[in-house]
Structure formats: structure tokens, C-alpha cells
Automatic annotation (TrEMBL):
Belongs to the PyrK family. This is Oxidoreductase FAD-binding subunit. FAD binds at R68, P69, M70, S71, G92, T93. One of its GO terms (molecular function) is oxidoreductase activity. Binds 1 FAD per subunit. It comes from Caballeronia cordobensis (Burkholderia cordobensis).
Amino acid sequence: MSASPCGGGKAATVASHRCRVVEHYWVNQRYKYIRLEADSPIATVTQAGQFYQLKCPTTAEHEPFLLRPMSVYGAGPEDNRIEFLYNVTGVGTKAMATLPEGGYMDIVGPLGNTFTFSPGYRRILVVARGVGLATMAPLVREASQAGVAITAVMSARSPADLMEKEFLRGAVADVRSVFDADGSSSVEAVAILIRDLIHEQQPDAVYTCGSQRLLMLLQRVLNDYPHVTAEVAMEQHMACGMGVCLSCVRMFDCDGDRRFLRVCREGPVFPIREVVGEVEFG
């Protein structure tokens, strides 16, 4: 299910799971952590980069209609355990934030493909900001368990928003932190930093998630390093999450042939070099 040219790969085995809320707490002022126990084995079928559709509760203040797509933050070690780290920002996540420990939530998945990763890699470089931390945390864990060296460029508004501990979860990494508050997260500064890291450390693969700005930056930088594997887990608005509604299509360059692909179905992980910038419809 790893990313292939123009997306795709083996389809995931999708199921609906009734889950009990085991832990649910604030990590900082904007993010919450939730650990669920499913009614059936779930960890063994879930891979880094995949996501689930979550049925958020209805409250007196919030009535979310559609399921909410959410990247997996962690799965296991128990075979029925799954974790999410999410930004409380919209109707669905504000309703989800009210779920009490001991309550229940229905989720559907796993959905989508996964990152390309080889235990034979010497080093990987991950570039993360915001919710991308949650998406790539399982990849960091996989690399750490395989003995692969990790370099992490972590971007945040301020040091208080960084969540380094939550991202690495005990993995050892060479962390380079950049912030909006001091200007070190500017496109120019991060481009110089990433070029220096690739030149000095020669990673086998580069990964990112979510941020359109970081994606475009990496596309430009990686033009000079065609031998480096480079992938992005796309963040896109979704309705069904299974490729039926076509609400999550993006344009990709497939060997010179531009195509619209569904982020939920052919992705969400794609080769960075194939992503075409935002396209206006109508």
C-alpha cells in the first residue's frame, strides 16, 4: 500500500469499529489526544500514513453531519488500540473534544495507502508542522525501531506549540526547530536549512504532511536531488473518504500526463514531485 507513481496501490481492508474512549486529554491549548479500544483487532491492519473516518458526537452546540477524516497517530501495542492527536478547530473536532473517558465512538478504516519506507535506509528526513506531527509519528516510530537515523525539521508558531515530545514519542532524532515567532520558519530560511541537511546528511528519503507551503518548498529544493525518495501525506477536505464523492480530488503530474486523483483513494501519500499546485475550478 505504499505510494506509487500517481498514487494507488493495494486497497486497504476497511471495516467499521465500535470503540471505547480509554484516554482523552488536552496536550496543549489547541490539541487533544484520544486513545480508543476497538471491538476487534485494529492495530495489525493499520499502517503509517493511513487514516480513519470518525463519527463525531452530536452536542447541544455542535451537530456534525459528515464523518471526519483523521490521520492515525499510533496503533498498538495492544491489537485493539488506536490513537489520534487532533487540533480542536471546527464543528466536528469541537464536538469530539467533549467525548468523556468511558464513552464510545464509531470509526471506519483503515483508509488510504502508506509511506514508502525501507529498513535498509540509513537516514530519513521528516519535515513537520501542525497536524502533520500526528500523521508522521507512526513513520518516525517505524524508522526508530528499524535503527534508521532520523532528522526532524519541526515548524510551529512558537516554542509552546512545538510538541516535540509528542512527535518523537521516545525516538532519538536530530531535531531542528523553526518558529513563526522569530522568523526562522520563513520559506527562505527553511529552504536553506533543508538544503544544508540534505547536502550534509544525505538522507535516503524525505517526508512531509499537510502544509502546502512546505510541500511547494520541498518540490523546489528536491529538484536538485532527484535520487532522494520524497513523499507527502496530503491533507484535503473529504466527505465520504472512500473515493465516491470526488470532493478531495487534486491534480498530479503522472509522467507528463496531468490527472485528477482522489486523495482519499489513490493517496493520501503521494510522491512530492508529482503534486501540482492548487487548481481553481469553474
